[in-house]
Amino acid sequence: MDDQNAQLEPNSQHPLNDPYQDLRPEQTSERHQHDDIHISWEASEYVMHHKSNMWFVGLGLISASLMALSLFILDDILATVVVALMTAAIVVYGTRKPHTLQYSLSDDEIIVGHRVMPLSDFRSFSLLEDGALKALWLIPLKRFAPSLTVYYPEQQEAEIIDILGRHLPYEEREPDVVDRITRQLRF
Asked: Does residue 118 form part of some domain?
């Protein structure tokens, strides 16, 4: 009975113990250690572009203008709230630092962190250069599924392309309109 009470009292636990730790997904999959994995590497999950104070001032001015337009001209409170929430989300996402993820590639699948994705879910791959980093751009078979961008170290490029080339066709592609806009906005 005392053990149950100790578990229910929040002050009885050590402050560094996280009671929700077992409920959170792992950062990496156990599949990274399997024998059928040909190559593994660690890389950033995305490229974080430095945003100056002027970037945030510009965002604030644009958001304030949209909020004023929606509130005073359109008389739409809901749109004003949506613009404010979207601005907050952009600030949070724009200042979030990328995690370093573990990537693995086998003949059947690519593993990104804890996500295991069969190569059969992708139609083709392309190569991108995002600043100083090299990346794979995996195009999904499903029409509305998002593409997958995987950063990799340049010294492993030949081996990664060789493994992917056995299973997926290479397509020379340019970034689409949304990707170009987000790069111009340093997002």
From this structure: yes
- pLDDT for 75-116, tens place per residue? 999 999 999 999 999 888 888 888 888 899 988 899 888 888
Shared-domain flag, residues 39 and 118: yes
| Domains: count for the chain | 2
Pairwise CA distance, residues 160 & 121, whole Å: 18
Structural domain boundaries, residue 68: 53-95
pLDDT at 3: 45
Q: Based on the domain organization, do 89 and 112 belong to the same domain?
A: no
95-128 per-residue burial string, b: 16 or more CB within 10 A, e: under 16: eeeeeebbbbbbeebbbbbeebeebeebeebbbb
Measured at the CA of 30, the angle between CA 28 and CA 32, to 5 degrees, comes to 75
